[in-house]
């Protein structure tokens, strides 16, 4: 088995075995707006996620995973490129130019947003994406679900559901958002196509789940209504189980096709969510925030018989590690611009002393105009540094995220040396 290789020789041997053997299919499963706490295997007392619980038990599961930013568009762009938002420059969901007035939000999204976002997409296309890199090994790549960057071809996918046409509501997934909510047939057809062509495949399964609108099947809603403090919470909890059911459907289909032992599953959530009890919105310390309820997610790697299952509650990892880890597994040389590491390489994990994050405005323009926070996560401390220009009245926060996972106690005043050291780490990271 591979996973936390103890030396370069064993790592090279594992790579050679992959090259000699049949290349694994690769399936990215991406949740959408779900807190790191909201799974059975992460300890939630009410939400039932039996399929993801099973996946976690069969995976190298990192409980302390992070995305670099807590908003969907930049988070997804980082997952597919392996780079921080400050590099790929997808900083938020909508690009709004200085002085621009949005009298009608719906009209602006269909007319002005595509014009503003054109340069963002053009810049994004300069970078390598995982589908583009996998072409070297003959992979077919498929996009389903959430995708913010126009047509699926902008991510170098061979096939996809998202057309990206602004005249047909092509902003953040369009037809792709039907996957999961309206069945799985398109995804199954893609898998069948790859098997027919005898090609390894990369599948991007990023359904609009448990994302709002929270309109779960009635059977699930009735299950959670008696258990939840309000109907709003019951709906969100039911959405989490609905998402879990679709993940089970996907995993079962691959198993039915006899491809389980030849498939690498990678799981992550794009950003967190705390459901408000008295309305349909989210708590300000979750999505779009620098706190762990916005950034933290379990990250899982399953390859039956190849990656040893383990639930790791200590190691810090990032969604930025997904691309370099996959490339290492399939024997593709990593571009130098990647910001993550091969998380299966023990020596690389031991050398890492921090992972980083950055939060921008939802309506962004330049880094200077849009940056809100920068973060560094270490064992055991996490620092949140507000931007002096855009968040001038906020204080630096320091938390021991191992003893205080819900970030209740700000230690910045008590530990000034730790604060200064982590601030310097952030500056060094940005200057590299």
Automatic annotation (TrEMBL):
Name its co-factor(s).
Answer: Ca(2+)
Domain Sulfatase N-terminal intervals: 24-332
GO terms of molecular function: arylsulfatase activity; metal ion binding
**Signal peptide feature range:** none
The family database entries (PANTHER family) matched by this protein are listed as:
ARYLSULFATASE FAMILY MEMBER (PTHR42693), ARYLSULFATASE G (PTHR42693:SF42)
Any matching Pfam family: Sulfatase
- Give the family from UniProt: Belongs to the sulfatase family.
Spell out the protein name for this chain.
Answer: Sulfatase
Give the source species.
Flagellimonas eckloniae
Sorted alphabetically, the keyword list is:
Calcium, Hydrolase, Metal-binding, Signal
């Amino acid at each position: 088995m591979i996973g936390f290789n103890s030396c370069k020789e064993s790592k090279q041997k594992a790579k050679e075995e992959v090259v000699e053997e049949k290349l694994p299919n690769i399936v990215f499963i991406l949740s959408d707006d779900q807190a790191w706490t909201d799974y059975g295997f992460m300890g939630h007392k009410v939400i039932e996620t039996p399929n993801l619980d099973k996946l976690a038990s069969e995976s190298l599961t990192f409980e302390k995973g992070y995305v670099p930013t807590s908003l969907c568009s930049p988070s997804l762009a980082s997952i597919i490129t392996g780079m921080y938002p400050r590099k790929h420059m997808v900083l938020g969901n909508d690009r709004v130019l200085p002085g621009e007035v949005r009298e009608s939000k719906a009209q602006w999204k269909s007319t002005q947003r595509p014009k503003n976002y054109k340069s963002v997409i053009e810049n994004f296309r300069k970078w390598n994406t995982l589908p583009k890199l996998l072409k070297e090994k003959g992979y077919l790549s498929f996009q389903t679900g959430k995708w913010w960057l126009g047509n699926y071809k902008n991510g170098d996918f061979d096939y996809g559901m998202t057309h990206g046409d602004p005249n047909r509501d092509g902003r953040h997934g369009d037809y792709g958002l039907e996957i999961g909510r309206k069945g799985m047939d398109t995804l199954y057809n893609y898998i069948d196509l790859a098997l027919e062509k005898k090609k390894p495949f990369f599948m991007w399964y990023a359904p609009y789940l448990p994302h709002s609108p929270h309109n779960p099947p009635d059977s699930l809603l009735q299950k959670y209504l008696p258990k939840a403090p309000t109907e709003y919470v019951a709906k969100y909890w039911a959405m989490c189980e609905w998402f879990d059911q679709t993940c089970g459907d996907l995993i079962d289909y691959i198993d039915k096709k006899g491809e389980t032992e030849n498939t690498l599953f990678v799981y992550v959530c794009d950003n967190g969510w705390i459901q408000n009890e008295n309305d349909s919105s989210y708590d300000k310390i979750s999505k779009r925030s620098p706190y762990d309820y916005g950034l933290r997610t379990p990250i899982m790697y399953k390859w039956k018989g190849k990656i040893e299952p383990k639930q790791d509650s200590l190691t810090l990892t990032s969604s930025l590690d997904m691309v370099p880890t996959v490339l290492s597994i399939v024997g593709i040389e990593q571009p130098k611009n990647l910001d993550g590491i091969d998380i299966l390489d023990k020596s690389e994990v031991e050398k890492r002393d921090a992972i980083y994050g950055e939060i921008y405005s939802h309506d962004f323009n330049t880094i200077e105009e849009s940056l809100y926070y920068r973060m560094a996560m270490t064992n055991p401390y996490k620092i949140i540094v507000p931007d002096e220009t855009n968040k001038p009245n906020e204080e630096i926060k320091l938390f021991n995220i191992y003893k205080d996972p819900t970030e209740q106690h700000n230690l910045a005043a008590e530990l000034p040396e730790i604060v200064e050291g982590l601030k310097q780490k952030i500056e060094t990271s940005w200057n590299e």
